[in-house]
Amino acid sequence: MPQISQILETYASQFFWLLIVFGLIYFTIGHGMLPKIEASMDARDRKIADDLAAAERARAEADNLGDSGAADLTAARTEAQAKSSAAKAKAAKDADARLAKADAEISIKVAASEAELAKATAKALAGIEAVAADAAADIVAKVSGAKVTSAQAATAVKAVMSHG
After folding, report:
1. pTM of this prediction?
2. Using one digit for the tens of pLDDT, what is the confidence trace for 101-118?
3. How many CB atoms lie within 10 A of CB 136?
4. CA distance 58 to 45
5. What letter does residue 48 receive in the DSSP assignment?
6. DSSP labels, 11-44
7. What is the CA angle 117-156-150, rounded to 5?
8. pLDDT value of residue 106
9. Sign of CA dihedral 158, 159, 161, 162
10. Number of H-type helices and E-type strands within the chain
């Protein structure tokens, strides 16, 4: 068949150049571009691994900071409670001091009032004794007609009041 032999003659040189071009493309891509692509992929993989390691370190550091933050919070809470207790104790002490001072002032006022009351009672009793002595002298004078001196009447009233 002449058509087949014609195809081989016509396309044989084209197959040859096709193989040459594909070989050049294969070696160009294989030796020129592939190493660059592999280097980019390796760099990307390294970058991802480094980023993951940095993220892990940051997470561990954040956990440590969280733990130390909780410890700081506990320490601050303890310190605040201590200060609160100290303030309460100081307030209680101040209140006790004010109460003792007020108690002392009240005791002084009560003692002064009692002294004044005792004076007023003594004065009233003295007035009662004088009135009673005058009344006793008048009663004796009207009942018996005897004359009693004021001194005798006062002595008799004192004697009766001290016993009764």
Report:
1. 0.39
2. 999 999 999 999 999 999
3. 18
4. 20
5. H
6. HHHHHHHHHHHHHHHHHHIIIIIHHHHHHHHHHH
7. 90
8. 93
9. positive
10. 3, 0
